[in-house]
């Protein structure tokens, strides 16, 4: 079946075509889609003669430092302000893969003063912000949308951009396995491979890159698995103590949730992460019709139907577990009706 997609809105194309200087933003704690879209688009825009500033609140995680172009990342607010001043009115800001303004980070109010402020995103839970928007929740990834944008702008896809966009699409589709993977997604991935991207090389960087510390941490985390609701719900958690004992970092937990999700009977997997100072971050994954974005929204978070998250302050893993368990059970029971 052919999917129905909107064409890239003219306002987005015109905003980017018309500006000589572009500031790119993405969401905090950026994943493969966020960084791949950012560096992929940056490379395309630079190749077309534009000046580009890639702002990140924190340096690129060691999990993604293989991305070509990650040296473009700049965390300096002073540098950003100089770029904006120099560009004067010949400037557009663009947020990629960011579901709501809060996820632009602590300096969001400053960023949102830039006008026009364009937004390209695919979150089901998207809350509108910015002045020029393209939000399409049926898209697999922002990387896929950046490819369509490049076509609309008439830009030739460079190898470096292809590599980044492939990482973006591959990570957000769970290596082309999730429901969001459509025929257009695979066509675009094929085009990127035509540009020279080697799936085996990317797969090696993304999935066969564990340190001993990371594998140790996984051992601790998997040992915490609890099953509920006739094995349809799995919870795992990570504590600060586990990080200390394994020598790994919180970045290293990326992908761990795929293991409880992989259990045949599991419909919803939940990962509770103990942050600093009483913060707990929650990642959820679901299969099929189970909507975890709705649960996340109830806690002021967001995401997609099958992958969502949120963060709470002044709490504990045990408290959050009980809160989430109740909501998850309700979703499962409502689904049966
Ligand atoms: P994660 O479990 O961190 O990989 O996130 C899964 C999905 O949920 C991603 O699409 C995120 O954008 C979204 N998400 C995660 N945490 C939050 C949050 N605190 N607020 C809004 N959306 C979130
Ligand atoms: Mn993302
Ligand atoms: Mn995404």
UniProtKB/TrEMBL annotation:
Coiled coil: none annotated. GO terms for molecular function: nucleic acid binding. Residues 242-318 form the DHHA1 domain. It comes from the Bacteria. InterPro entries: DDH_dom (IPR001667), DHHA1_dom (IPR003156), Oligoribo/pAp-PDE_c-di-AMP_PDE (IPR051319). Pfam families: DHH, DHHA1. Residues 21-166 form the DDH domain. This is Phosphoesterase. It comes from Desulfomarina profundi. The lineage of its organism: Bacteria, Pseudomonadati, Thermodesulfobacteriota, Desulfobulbia, Desulfobulbales.
